[in-house]
Amino acid sequence: MDVTTTDGAPLPLDDAARAVAKALFLRPEPLCPECRGRVLGRLGHGFTNPERARLAAQALGLEPPLPLDPPDRCEVCAGAFSRIPKWVERCLNSAEGWEWSSFRCGSRFDPERLAREEALWVDVGSAWGESLRAAFNRELGKAISAATGKRGDVDPPDLVFLADVPVGLASITVSPIFFYGRYRKLDRTLPQTRWPCRSCRGKGCSRCGGTGKMYAESVEEVVGGPLLALSGGSSHAFHGMGREDIDARMLGRGRPFVLEVSRPKRRGLPMEEALRAISEKGVGRVEVQDLRPCEGSEVERVKAARPEKTYRVVIAPAFPEAKLNEVRTVVENHPLEQRTPTRVAHRRADLRRLRTVKSVRFVASDAESSTLEVRAEAGTYIKEFVEGDGGRTQPNLAALLGTPLKVRALDVLEVHDGPEVA
Ligand SMILES: [Zn+2]
Ligand SMILES: [Zn+2]
Question: Distance from the CA of 216 to the center of ligand 2, in angstroms?
Fold first, then answer.
């Protein structure tokens, strides 16, 4: 029998490989064609492992080809390769009801069999062995692709199949889906993310009225609720490009975020329908724009960004514009030294950090208050910059203007995270 590959190349059997092949065919234990060929699995290109076994036998003059052992008796795989069609069926059954277009395969084998294979490589002196698991995962992947037309080489995949070979069960791990967008927050009582109750830590108690939450709702829930419902997912997580205080509004073009949905049943969601549901749920409180599906890598980008922000600050009592103009040069583009604010000191280390206020602009005054626009580096504590926090922020406007100041209202007007449209 003549075995040729697609390009007709012979198996590159030099003296060393020939010696390995010889030792391999003298082995007493039963080995299936796949497992025997795989001992030379990294020798030459374009061959299947059973082809390698047959070509090696041919080259050694062992013709007609040896009666290769029946797969079920194979000492290494116990017939796993011959049952790949069965594994395809098991995998596809485990993915029933899930939307997916790409996948990867993993498998678990009896560690004793994996050790037996490595011992075999050592015994016959092969430097070309390919592992049982790598080969099985690849062959299973090829068979699933052939059966479904779905792609097995996408990273990250929608699904990962795990074939538990000794147990005979297939299971799936479902990858999350991600959505990028920008939110505007118009409500001064809404936190960005779900905030577990401090007393019960989310279990539900009398203090939180059984909700397990400090606040009835959050931007995360307004955005995540509809996406979770449409996708049939199990939970959501919110990754914002920083966050504003609960009592600050988020205006302008909004703040970038990535919403992650775990274990979604459906992946390709209708974005218009999602936006409509979010705007109904968030009416008067949360608005979302630029919503689109995105890669998981966007989470890292959004979280690592350190954009400058522009704030609108309403300060009492009122002061004249001329007075502000006298002190602007002392704060603009000079180092601002801030100790961890008193209001968060109970949950953060007391650190001293340097930030920069880029500009301070007088907007308007009325009888009670003055309004400024402050543009500052990421992480600047704006309330403390205005009020001074008992001298823990230096310099501060209260000290410079020579009068105690109180921030009445704070809004984020812009997150400067990229090119801005005029
Ligand atoms: Zn085998
Ligand atoms: Zn509670």
Answer: 12
